[in-house]
Specification:
Blueprint: E1 3-5, E2 12-14, H1 16-23, H2 26-60, H3 65-100, H4 108-142
Antiparallel strand pairs: 1-2
């Protein structure tokens, strides 16, 4: 396991998941990529539900149009980000296939670095999406 020291802290943080990415088989990374695609599909369904919820509230609350426009913008932004990250994961899976076919010039280490970057993006996006949902639910609750 890899131990990472954080700047300005005397504490050592055990980052076992990052270390495990360096050790697990490609099949495990493939499964994680598939899980990401399933998560994105679920989030797309949630976005549709939130969008429907906002449309119902929009017709009931004309005096908060600026806030509704912001929520609509965020909704569109998330939908586009879903598509963008989903495409990147699919491309990542295609790279894995090429790697498994022993295509010249492709290396396991490159795939793993890319996988880690995608994982970081998914984690960041998950956090942002949860915050967005909180904003929508708060808005709907207050109306």
């Amino acid at each position: 396991m890899k131990i990472i020291k954080l700047k300005n802290m005397n504490t050592e943080v055990l980052n076992s998941k990052a270390a495990m990415l360096l050790e697990v088989g490609l099949n495990i990374l493939h499964l994680e990529s598939k899980e990401w695609l399933e998560t994105i599909a679920f989030w797309k369904d949630e976005i549709q539900l939130l969008d429907n919820l906002l449309k119902v509230k929009k017709s009931q609350d004309d005096h908060k149009q600026d806030f509704i426009k912001i929520l609509d913008y965020l909704d569109d932004l998330h939908a586009n980000l879903f598509k963008y990250i989903e495409n990147d994961i699919v491309a990542h899976e295609k790279l894995l296939y090429r790697l498994q076919q022993n295509e010249k010039g492709l290396f396991d280490a490159i795939y793993r670095v890319m996988h880690r970057q995608l994982k970081d993006r998914m984690d960041s996006f998950k956090s942002d999406f949860l915050n967005f949902k909180k904003i929508v639910f708060k808005y709907v609750k207050e109306v």
